[in-house]
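Regression test case RT-17, inverse folding.

Input:
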């Protein structure tokens, strides 16, 4: 028998333990990560039990009469255990939809976990979405490398690597988040008139909570920081969360050297290297210059879809 409960703080440990053992969860669903910005979202997450045993969770928030699979996360949807079959997932959606209607919801916006993060196949929710007449309303493109089938870097990227090496650029893991945030913030302000999604205090807090999973790599010339890459490390994927270099760093090819180090030296044992999205506005806008750079390293497209259905 299935039972659905709304998440409360008293379920935090049970939730976190489940994420660690799930088929498709990552540390982004740990409540210590999700709740750093709890003041910005009205949490409306759910836990689903099968015969008293936790079998699925749904990170979610509420805005008026719409349930979002959490707006504070890049991806979400149901995080599931090994016991979830297709029939069980259909039953879970039916249970969820009935509860949402009773609570006055009219619509669900759902972002499934991309397949590259799955420990074992876990796309039962995609079929359930189809059965609920869900429509794809957004399709963001991320650029990804599979370590077991890497393509060669393009000539322009190899040129940048060689230039950085000739200029004695040194790459290393770093704790200098303040300096990197200075470079990152200046670039975003100059190019887009925006600030990073995370403040410096927030990213330092998250790093302190997840030091194994959030790491910064910096490029230096004679101890002067020129640029860096902040990565999120999960069981199957190394994901670049932030990338930035100052004007000298760009001139000397430091990002090319950083990516060469991360892809071909530091993380060869992690199956997937994901550069992150090059689209905005739910995929309607493609940053062609950004994706050109990523494709130059041999990365190719993975979709991060957004679904919507009425209750």
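Golden output:
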């Amino acid at each position: 028998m299935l039972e659905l409960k709304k998440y409360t703080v008293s379920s935090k440990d049970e939730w976190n333990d489940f994420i660690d053992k799930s088929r498709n969860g990552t540390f982004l669903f740990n409540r210590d990560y999700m709740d750093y910005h709890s003041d910005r979202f009205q949490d409306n997450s759910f836990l689903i039990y099968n015969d008293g045993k936790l079998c699925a969770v749904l990170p979610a928030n509420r805005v008026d009469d719409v349930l979002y699979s959490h707006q504070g996360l890049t991806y979400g949807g149901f995080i599931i255990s090994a016991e979830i079959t297709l029939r069980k997932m259909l039953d879970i959606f039916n249970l969820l939809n009935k509860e949402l209607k009773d609570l006055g919801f009219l619509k669900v916006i759902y972002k499934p976990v991309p397949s590259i993060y799955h420990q074992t196949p876990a796309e039962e929710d995609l079929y359930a979405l189809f059965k609920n007449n869900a429509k794809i309303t957004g399709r963001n493109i991320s650029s990804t490398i599979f370590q077991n089938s890497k393509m060669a870097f393009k000539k322009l990227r190899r040129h940048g690597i060689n230039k950085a090496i000739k200029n004695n650029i040194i790459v290393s893991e770093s704790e200098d988040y303040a300096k990197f945030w200075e470079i990152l913030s200046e670039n975003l302000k100059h190019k887009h008139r925006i600030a990073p999604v995370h403040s410096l205090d927030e990213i330092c807090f998250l790093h302190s909570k997840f030091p194994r999973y959030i790491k910064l790599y910096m490029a230096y010339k004679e101890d002067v920081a020129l640029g860096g890459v902040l990565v999120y490390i999960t069981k199957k994927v190394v994901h670049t969360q932030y990338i930035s270099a100052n004007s000298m760093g760009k001139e000397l090819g430091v990002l090319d050297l950083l990516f060469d180090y991360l892809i071909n030296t530091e993380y060869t044992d992690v199956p997937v290297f994901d550069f992150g999205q090059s689209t905005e506005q739910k995929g309607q806008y493609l940053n062609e210059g950004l994706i050109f750079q990523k494709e130059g390293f041999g990365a190719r497209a993975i979709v991060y879809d957004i679904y919507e259905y009425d209750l």
